[in-house]
Amino acid sequence: MTSRVLLPLFALFLAFLPACGEAGPDSGTSGPPWPPSAEDGSAGTRSENSNGNSGAGSKAAGSGGVSASAGYSGTAGSGGTGAYSVGSSLPATWNSAKSATISDAQLQAEYAAWKLAFVEGCANGSSIVVSEGAVLSQGIAYGMLLSVAMSDQALFDGLWKFYQDHLDKNGLMNSKTAKCEAPGNNNANAETDADLDAAMALVQAASRWPTATAGYLAKAEALASKIAQFETDMCYGRRILRLGDMSGGCSDAYAPRINPSYFSPGYYKVFAHYFSSQATTWLALSDATYQLYAIYQARMDNLVPDWSNPDGSGSEVDSQYSWQACRTPWRVAVDYAWTGDTRAKTFMQNISSWVDAHGGLPNAAQEQNSAFVGAFALAGGHDQGKFDGYMTGWLGAAMDDTPYYPGTLRVLYLLVAAGKFSSTL
After folding, report:
1. Are the beta carbons of 158 and 25 closer than 8 angstroms?
2. Residue 47's pLDDT band (boundaries 50, 70, 90)?
3. What pLDDT, on a 0 to 100 scale, did the predictor assign at position 55?
4. Which of helix, strand or coil describes residue 85?
5. Are the C-beta atoms of residues 6 and 110 closer than 8 Å to each other?
6. How far is CA 327 from CA 185, 264, 372, 401, in A?
7. Interior angle at CA 223, CA 221 and CA 228, nearest 5
């Protein structure tokens, strides 16, 4: 990767603050008020590079149904039990540590810079996030998460339009398209992490814009149902997440691998809460997630791999903490912040132990960019003092964040660090 250093946060703030709400097409009202919160290199038919670009290459098991009274009981995983029952009043607090140094103005500036760098508008009114001249479903979904957090409804709707304009045969967005590609199915197949992020963004949008006629929550439920049907699988007695609707998991005899950085246990609990008929599937995925994370951390000195087999095993090539796995602490930190799941806390403590044993931040990170350093910082959220030190290490260091992948994850991570990534629960 070419070494290009993002301006330090204070310089970025000064440079972009006048442009807040103006950078990029389809700009809406970015910034406060914040949404209310009840307080890749794989084998087979799929490939990912260091920027997360992907293409997918059979069919998955369907989802189960359960009434809203079904209980959530955390099974053996990274320690502890679950925090609530489906249908109950879920925890109304932000359980993770927060950074008091990240201001709303700084977040607006970071968001404006991100839009200027990566967002474009299309002639038909849709919007795109560009990665190396192409459009990834991953980028569309990341953009949906960012735009709803920043109250940018025009961009959110433009990105959601592009998602809907490029559905595959299962009603999920094709993983990769050309810039402003004409609507239709290009048969690139779907990518599960993107679909999960898009569904979560729709839930957040329903909370932020409750009077909107767009029907965001109904769309989120429909999308979550498709994910459960086509992008999950039963493997070795566990409900696991596939790579996409046509790859990964036990349904894929050619390349059954799975990606731990796609697991989104915090999202699963939100979906189980709102979509009671799907609750069995989402809570089973949550339990399986922590069972697999415990397997990974036991064999990788508290880290997790880019890829694994569905049973948690993996080859030497698979078992690297690199451009895929680097996102995993973010996924788990979101769950801990939203639900206080003790298994998430244990996972974060284990990651922190590894970081501290390898020189702390930013020195411990495998790459000096926010995709790696920022995610490690979020893992410190189980303890306020540790988190403050990690945040100083992250934001005080020169980060190579100008490429799409670390540059986009940077802003997502900052939202979590500031306690402004809403679960809507």
Report:
1. yes
2. very low
3. 30
4. strand
5. no
6. 29, 11, 7, 15
7. 90
Structure confidence by residue, pLDDT tens digits, 232-280 = 999 999 999 999 999 999 999 999 999 999 999 999 999 999 999 999 9
Asked whether 259 and 248 are in contact (CB, 8 A), the reply is yes
Say how many Å lie between the first and final Cα of the chain, rounded: 39
99 φ, ψ (degrees, to nearest 5) = -95, 120
Residue 4 C-beta-side C-alpha neighbours within 13 Å? 8
Average pLDDT, integer, range 98-108: 96
Indicate the average pLDDT of the chain.
83
Packing angle, helices 370-379 and 328-339, rounded to 10: 30
Q: What is the pLDDT of residue 92?
A: 60
**Distance of alpha carbon 30 from alpha carbon 143, whole angstroms:** 13
| Model confidence pLDDT, tens digit, residues 259-269 | 999 999 999 99
pLDDT average, residue stretch 210-236: 95
What are the residue boundaries of the structural domains of the chain, listed by start? 9-417
Fold classified for 9-417? Glycosyltransferase (1.50.10)
* Rounded Cα–Cα distance for residues 271 and 57 (Å): 27
Residue 373 burial (CB count, 10 A): 29
Report the alpha-carbon distance of residue 131 to residue 120 in Å, rounded.
11
The DSSP bridge pattern shows strands 176-178 and 134-136 to be: antiparallel
What single-letter DSSP state applies at residue 67? -
- List pLDDT tens digits, range 50-73: 333 333 222 233 333 222 222 323
- Any residues with CB less than 8 A from the CB of 342 and at least 6 apart, and which? 74, 79, 80, 81, 83
Closest residue by Cα to residue 298 from 313, 285, 309:
313
Contact 43, 307 (CB under 8 A): no
Place of tokens 């926010």: 370
E strand residue ranges, 216-276: 232-235, 238-241
pLDDT at position 16 over 50:
no
The dihedral built from the CA positions of residue 11, 17, 21 and 23, taken in this order, carries a sign that is: negative
Q: How far, in Å, CA of 302 to CA of 351, rounded?
A: 6
Angle at CA 130, nearest 5°, toward 148 and 408? 50
